[in-house]
C-alpha cells in the first residue's frame, strides 16, 4: 500500500456510515481522487476543517489494491475557503466552481493548469473580485482547458486571423466563428464587447479588482452556460 502526499482541493464529501466520510478531492499530482476519511463524521476528529469543500489541504493517502477508493490518512489545511461561504453570492459561485471541476475533470488525471485556475479564482474571490466576473473568468478558462471554448479569433470558413475590431458571427451550433466576409446567413451575432472581454480574460490573471462591463459579463456567462450544457450532453 504506497503512501502518497499531494496538495489538493476538496470537492465534495458524503457521509459514510456513522463515523466516516467519502471525500472527492482534486489532487495536484494525481488528479481527481475519491477516498474514505475514517472518523471524519465524529464531533472531534483529526481532520478539522481540512475536508470542507474548496479547502486547499495537503492530503496523505494510501492506495488500496483493486479498490477505487483510497484511504485518507491525514489532511492538513493550507488555506481555508471559509470566507467564501460567509455570503450567499460568493457561496453560490464557490459551489459552481466545485461542480464544474467535478464535471469536467476525468478521474486520476493530473491537470496542473486547472489546479492553478481554481486556486487563483478562490484567492481572487476572497480578495473581493466581483463575483460575476470571477465566475465568467473561471468558466472561460475551464471550457478552454477542456477544449470546448471556440476560438473567436480565427474564421472557421476561410481560416483568416481575426482582429478585435473585425466583424464575426457564431456559426449555427455556436461552436465556431465565421467572419463577415464569409457566408454567415444562419449565424448569430456576437457583441464586440464580449469578444473584447474574452480576449482580456485569456490574456490576464484574475485578481482582487478584476471586472468588466455588466452587459458583456452577463452575455458571456450565458454563452458559457450554453457550452457547458452542450459539453455535458454530448
Ligand atoms: Zn471567413
Describe the structure.
It is a single chain. Helices cover 34% and strands 23% of the residues. Helix 2 runs antiparallel to helix 3. A five-stranded mixed β-barrel has the order 1-2-3-5-4. The chain has a three-stranded antiparallel sheet with strand order 7-6-8, with no helix packed on it. The chain folds into two domains: 80 residues, OB fold (Dihydrolipoamide Acetyltransferase, E2P), CATH 2.40.50; 116 residues, no CATH class. Strand 2 and strand 3 form a beta hairpin. It is elongated, with a radius of gyration of 20 Å. It contains five helices and eight strands; from the N terminus they run βββββαααβββαα. It has 234 residues and is an alpha+beta fold. The longest helix is centred in the C-terminal third of the chain and has 20 residues. Bound molecules: zinc ion.
Descriptive terms for the model:
234 residues; alpha+beta; OB fold (Dihydrolipoamide Acetyltransferase, E2P); 2 domains; five-stranded mixed barrel; three-stranded antiparallel β-sheet; 34% helix; elongated; binds zinc ion
Give a nutshell description of this structure.
Helix content is 34%, strand content 23%.
Percent helix among the residues? 25-40%
H and E order: EEEEEHHHEEEHH
Mean pLDDT reading: 94
Number of domains: 2
Number of strands: 8
Structural classification: alpha+beta
Can you list the ligands bound to this structure? Answer: zinc ion
Q: Are there runs of 5+ residues with pLDDT below 50, and where?
A: none
Number of helices: 5
How much beta, percentage-wise?
Answer: 15-25%
Shape: elongated
The radius of gyration computed from the alpha-carbon positions, rounded to a whole number of angstroms, is 20 Å
